[in-house]
Structure formats: structure tokens, C-alpha cells
Amino acid sequence: MSKTVFVTGATGLLGRQVLRAFDKAGWKAVGSGFSRAKPPTVLKVDLEDQSAIESVFDETKLLTFYPGAANRFPDKCDADPDGTRALNIAAARRIAQAACSRSIFLIYISTDYVFSGKPGEAPYEADSTPNPTNLYGQTKLAGEKAVLEECENTGMAVVLRVPVLYGHAETPAESAVNVLVDAVWKAQEKDAHVSMDDWSLRYPTNTEDVARVLVDIASKYLVADEARVAMPKILQFSSEQRYTKFQMCQLFAEILGLPLDRMGATGEDKKATVPRPYDTHLSTKMLKELGVDVRTQDFGDWWYVL
């Protein structure tokens, strides 16, 4: 039987890798990218249009659906709260309604920012109590709940939480990690003084690894058939390598052979308009119990060979 996956946000940092991974695994991979559509592989679909979503589902005969489109930058979320809620919550619910009513398995990507990240709490298990500190985390948690509510008792939806991502980017700004290379270059300018967070702990995870895990999840859940109802509804994936933003910049400067004299490390910003968690490290215990390979690429090695 032909297996088809549909990926929203297919032109984004993670979506591109998800398309490649499913295609490599023998699936028919189709996606959407509203402003960067490239038919017939990447279609233009308005996620605020229920009929457009349903039309895609009916025409492509999907088996698995991965909704990757989301507003994922905390500062941008606070700048456009209504737009953020529309994409991270309302669109997620519409997609879940359409998918589950057609017996299409849904994988919803969420974030480590659903947790408060207070010192001493991490690592967080999949069943730990969420307590997001900013609008981004709040809307992604609401998106999780919307998806699981719409697919309740069907076994047709699962949430995968991931931390900050990096990988092959069309522009550095696609990733909160890749963009730090620009900060290192900025620090080379005469009279520059770049401040960089050396307080919050990050676990940068490669998009290729996340894509591989998504293929494994889809395969294991689809094979399970009726047993899916009893399988975990929330999963988590993360690298175990820990860095602050400043430490990542130090690594990039070393790789580039650049000094970092004009970049200063900063501590906790208690006056920040968008509060950031200290440590939201995700436990991968549930994935391990399912037999999914949770190994990740070495962060430093990936950048050295890039």
C-alpha cells in the first residue's frame, strides 16, 4: 500500500528535512508552503481555510499528516498575539478535525517552552505538568490540547515536543541557533559591543535527527493499528548537549577563527519583555520505551564539517 505524508510548513527549516526523510524512507511526501509553494511537491494551502485543508486531505489520500507550520519565535508571538493564536491554536484544531474525521494519523510538533524551566525542575518527562512562561509556550500548549481533544480515543494523533532546532538553513534567521553566526560576525565590527545570553540553557537539536524520529514515530504508530489507542499521546525528543547562546557563539568563533572580544556574556534578564525559561531539558524516556533511536548528531562536529 502506498504511504503518503503531508507536511505543512514544508518550505521551513524543519519541514524541508521532514519531506526529505519521508521521501528517502519510501513515502510519497507532499507539503504546503503558503508563500514559497512549489507544486506539485509543495502546494499553496491557506491553513485558515477549512475547505482548503479538507480538499488537500481528500485529493492526496493521506496516511500520515505532520503539521509543521507555526509561529515559533517568542518575540514575534508577543508582537502579533492574534496571529499567533490563529496559527498555533485555531489552525491546529482545524487540521486535527479534518485529519481524524478521515482516519489520517496526525503528528503535532510542539516545544519545550510548554514548561516553566525553573532551576532544578528539568529534565521534564512527557507527563510532567506544563507551565509555560510566555505566549509562545502558552499557544503551543493550547495547540497540543486542541489536537488531542479532537482526536480523543482514536489513537490518531500524537504530540512530539522538541527544543531549539538548527540545521541547513536558507537564511540564518530561520533558526535561533544559526542566526548566532551572524552575531559572531557582528562582533567583528569596529566599536561593536554585542551582548549575548550566558544564562538560559539550550539543547540545540538537528533538524535531520528530528525528521528521522518523525518517520520512526509514523511507522510504529501506523503498524500498531487498534493498539494505537493505548500508546503514548505525548512524546519528546532532544539532544543531550547543553549550551548557552554565548557558549554557542564561542564555538562558532573558534570554528571561524575569529576573536570574540567585542561580545559580552550576560546573565538573567529579569526585565525582559518576553520571559525565557532557564532550563527546559526534555526527557526522551518515552521514545526509548517505544524503541525509537534517540541519538543525535554532535553539535560541534556538524558545524565543523558544514
Question: Could you walk me through the main structural features you see in this protein, from its secondary elements to its overall organization?
Answer:
With 306 residues, the protein is α/β, with parallel strands linked by helices. The protein has helices at residues 13-24, 50-60, 74-79, 81-100, 135-150, 180-186, 207-224, 245-256, 285-290, 299-305; strands at 4-8, 28-32, 42-43, 64-67, 105-111, 157-162, 165-166, 194-197, 205-206, 234-236, 263-266. The strands form 3 sheets. Strands 3-2-1-4-5-6-10 form a 7-stranded parallel sheet, sandwiched between helices. Strands 7-9 form a two-stranded parallel ribbon. 46% of the residues are buried. The model has no long low-confidence stretch (mean pLDDT 90).
